[in-house]
Amino acid sequence: MKKFLIKAAIYSFTCFVITSMILIYFGGYVDFFYTKFTTPVAKSMIIGGSRSMQGLQPKILDKELQSLGKELPFFNYSFTVSQAPIGTHYNKSIFKKLDPNTKNGIFIISITPWMLANEIPDDGGEEIFREVDQPPHNMVNVSMNPNYEYFLKNLSYFHFKGIFRQNSKMHKDGWLEQRYFPEDSATFLSWKKTQKDMLLRFVDDYQVSKKRLQSLEGLLKSLKEHGKVFIVRTPIDDDFLEIENTFFTDFDVYINEVCNKHDARYFNFNNGTSKLKFKTYDGHHLDKEGSKYFSKIVSDSIKSVLKV
Predict the structure, then answer these.
(1) What is the dihedral of CA 45, 236, 215, 75, to 10 degrees?
(2) I need a surface site. Which of 56, 84, 260, 298 has the fewest CB within 10 A?
């Protein structure tokens, strides 16, 4: 019995060490979210779905906005539309990650109609909140390295083949770098069709949520106590934009009204000829070079408001 316990202890310790090494050195390759929970609390934040998780680079924003005298650096606390629609759950997690002592930060909220929508209840009853049991909402500690809580609760998100393929990397500032893109038009059209079909399903199955609209106002109201708030609508292909505007017809009007009410600013990057400079790799996600350019444009827009 004693030998068995010793062997079991050695085996457990070996597994613990190997797991720790993987999490510390390869966490950014094996999971899209893990690294976000291993970094310190943030001063300035990017909030949103996968479009901003890939499309806004904190290091570029830091460089461009360092002269403003704001509390930096930025941290990208974006997830996907499945994990982080606007709501009480996401709001709670945002303020876990935010340094409570921040008074002069910058907060960029990347918004889409889908982040303000819920599935239509089959029985006409209570709204279904799809994000409840997913990260970041199931996390107590969002700033621990290595973060074993995340590993135990969200092992299903890990894809260990990523250690060898390295097609994507979650950086320590929260930016997801995609490294594999369509190399031909047929692949691009295939990827785009997949994404478009998903949004069309949203149109059929989702409705704008009053509770999420209220949560957005609550988020703006709370964040402005810690700094200046900006809402952005990232550039997407015209056919995707048409789907979104059909689903939420007065989306831009509503966001402008909310921003005016809570002393925030709204930048819609789907207007004007400048949009032609942005190219997506699937209809609504910017590639690496596009995200560099977009991060610079967003920085310039913020500087124009704060007048440096």
Answers:
(1) -10
(2) 260
* pLDDT tens per residue, range 81-111: 888 899 999 999 999 999 999 999 999 999 9
In terms of Cβ atoms closer than 10 Å to its own Cβ (0-12, 13-18, 19+), residue 21 is exposed
Reply yes or no on whether the pLDDT at 7 is more than 50: no
Tally Cβ neighbours within 10 Å of residue 263.
Answer: 11
Site of tokens 């409705």 = 207
Give the bridge partners for 169, in sequence order.
177
Nearest to 51 by CA among 132, 113, 125: 113
Instruction: Provide the H-helix boundaries in the chain.
Output: 2-30, 50-55, 58-65, 88-97, 148-153, 162-165, 185-205, 210-223, 238-247, 251-261, 288-306
Beta bridge partners of 109: 47, 231
Count of Cβ atoms closer than 10 Å to residue 141 Cβ: 12
- Residue 154: both structure tokens together: 């969200």
CA distance 73 to 173: 9
Question: Which residues lie closer than 8 Å to 119 by C-beta, 6 or more apart?
Answer: 127, 128, 130, 205, 206
The two tokens of residue 248 are 């939420």
**pLDDT the model gives residue 27:** 47
Residue type, 140: V
Predicted TM-score of the model (pTM): 0.89
Q: Which two tokens stand for residue 190?
A: 């295939």
Q: Can you say how many angstroms the Cα of residue 191 is from the centroid of all Cα atoms in its chain? A: 20
Condensed to tens digits (0 to 9), the pLDDT of residues 224-248 reads: 999 999 999 999 999 999 999 999 9
d(CA 37, CA 35): 5
